[in-house]
Amino acid sequence: NVEAIWSDWTQDYDSLASFGFKTGLVIRYEDLVLNTSGVLARIAALANVTLQPSVVEQVDEGANPLAEHKQDARSFAAEKIATKSYLSEYTPDELQQVCS
């Protein structure tokens, strides 16, 4: 049941302190793809580290050698997010279960 898995997953985020973590940061995939520098700045701030923009390099090439869009993986991911084309990968029943 996708709903139960999602509920358990998000409750675990709320319970990070009980797992021994003093602080935590939830990073959405969408934010990492669309606002990489902003997410890195949040990570650096949480870690009390000064982020040097001159040493941060955006990598557009995918790491998976089998991926069909290896050369432009980041732009491909951003397009999928913007157009929500990933929704076509789910059956109507799966979409109903996840989105209701």
Relevant terms:
100 residues, 5 helices, mainly alpha, flat
List the helices and strands and how they pair.
Blueprint: H1 2-14, H2 29-34, H3 36-46, H4 73-83, H5 92-99
- Please tell me the overall pLDDT: 83
Q: What is the total tally of β strands? A: 0
Helix content: 40-55%
Task: Give the helix/strand class.
Answer: mainly alpha
* Uncertain segments: none
User: What's the total helix number?
Assistant: 5
- Largest sheet: number of strands, sense, barrel closure: none
Residue fraction in strands = under 5%
Cα-atom Rg, whole angstroms?
17 Å
Order of helices and strands: HHHHH
Distance, first to last CA: 13 Å
Give structural notes.
This protein is mainly alpha-helical. 49% of the residues lie in helices and 0% in strands. It has five helices and no strands. The two termini are 13 Å apart. The model has no long low-confidence stretch (mean pLDDT 83).
Concise structural overview:
The chain is mainly alpha-helical and 100 residues long. 49% of the residues lie in helices and 0% in strands. The mean pLDDT is 83.
